[in-house]
């Protein structure tokens, strides 16, 4: 049964007379406390926070003196006391509450300023188990939630970014805060504790290897409000989780316009794809449009790899996102800025390259400091009506040792290298995915079709178009290898690839008609390998 609410009025203006401070991040603390003190607000604070205030010459009372009890258990119990929580939760215009507060000598708090133990930062530094647990704040969230619940009287501030607006509100209202203001801060406070607990519960699930916890929460903090979402009539914002995986959320933007919703999505897809290729072994470039690669290539330099990635589909590359697995150098930068490009993301950029990109004011240049490890576990989340679909990130990676050769002909060493390359690219192409590749570069990509044969046809057409644009007589698919993200259910898709010029095929295998498909490959004299791993992507 729901708890009944006492019938009391929520006052609009509540004069601020007494404030409680308990912060781990002391940014802006002294300035706020001083301004409040100058307005005649009494200051109460927990141990170190109180010390900081007193050292700044401010007359603060230690919480321990208010409750008549010292901080105990190494700080695990500081504020968990009726003198504190009664002062926060009391409904001042409710006669029984007022009488009980008076009876026990409980004074109300009008402002509570709390920021929590840095649990997020602690786990981001890979702290040991005991350190992580000790950094789970208990008393802080209790005060935040209590204050937010009693926003009828209490102003709760959880973020130093809001200190200035507290002072502005007091100034505007003759030393009081408005109900509207307190309501908004209460909403923010509950969002803060929810995000904090989401991080704590997510950490537990991770370290205890609980794959499917009974409850799932995901938290993040607002990075920026976008001009619009996927389309101009949709509003959108970017929230960051604190995960340090190198990528679009952690990268530094050196120049260019604000990233749009689609830019962020595409840049993420681009950088995750290019990270499949070890920068110590090869330079790699991916050009992305609508979250699919239009071209991907490996080569000995970034400039060469870009050239080859562009050749794969020079028409679609217009307005694309370019991701590199090595430092952006001047030669590559010069080449990239020749066509309209939305975003470049790389682990780093040389000064000369930065200067070249600077000529294109709107072009966003991001440096991520490193590459994400494609093999590290993580989660992906998407919403459906009434639910969240949560799964492990596709960290599957096929190497030569995982392949099963199923045809009479064995792939040549060059074909093998291209097969692995094409399958790694196919992992990042929306299903049904068909990828033609040759000499470590894609030559035709078919993405996102409902039929695998249609994807094959599109990929083959792209290879023919690319050859024409490059002034070549023969399709780029001639002598290529082909990767399919899932098995060929019939021989037709494979035969289409053979017709286009492919000499070797990589696919998961596992169709009821594998025998038919293998027989067709043998009849065509091509080599085929099975990976035993599917890479659907939607
Ligand atoms: N246990 C408690 O009663 C308690 N009360 C407040 N805290 C936290 O202690 C921190 C501030 O403590 P100090 O001022 O002593 O540095 C704040 O982050 C606050 O959220 C507590 N610490 C952890 O739970």
From TrEMBL:
GO terms for molecular function: IMP cyclohydrolase activity; phosphoribosylaminoimidazolecarboxamide formyltransferase activity. It comes from the Bacteria. It catalyses: IMP + H2O = 5-formamido-1-(5-phospho-D-ribosyl)imidazole-4-carboxamide; (6R)-10-formyltetrahydrofolate + 5-amino-1-(5-phospho-beta-D-ribosyl)imidazole-4-carboxamide = 5-formamido-1-(5-phospho-D-ribosyl)imidazole-4-carboxamide + (6S)-5,6,7,8-tetrahydrofolate. CDD domains: IMPCH. Gene3D superfamilies: 3.40.140.20, Methylglyoxal synthase-like domain (3.40.50.1380). It comes from Kaistia dalseonensis. Residues 8-158 form the MGS-like domain. Signal peptide: none annotated. Its EC number is 2.1.2.3, 3.5.4.10. This is Bifunctional purine biosynthesis protein PurH. The keyword Aminoacyl-tRNA synthetase does not apply. PROSITE patterns: MGS (PS51855). The gene is purH. InterPro entries: AICAR_Tfase_dup_dom_sf (IPR024051), Cytidine_deaminase-like (IPR016193), MGS-like_dom (IPR011607), MGS-like_dom_sf (IPR036914), PurH-like (IPR002695). The IMP cyclohydrolase activity resides in the N-terminal region. SMART domains: AICARFT_IMPCHas, MGS. Belongs to the PurH family. Pfam families: AICARFT_IMPCHas, MGS. Pathway: Purine metabolism; IMP biosynthesis via de novo pathway; 5-formamido-1-(5-phospho-D-ribosyl)imidazole-4-carboxamide from 5-amino-1-(5-phospho-D-ribosyl)imidazole-4-carboxamide (10-formyl THF route): step 1/1; Purine metabolism; IMP biosynthesis via de novo pathway; IMP from 5-formamido-1-(5-phospho-D-ribosyl)imidazole-4-carboxamide: step 1/1. Keywords: Hydrolase, Multifunctional enzyme, Purine biosynthesis, Transferase. The keyword Protein biosynthesis does not apply.
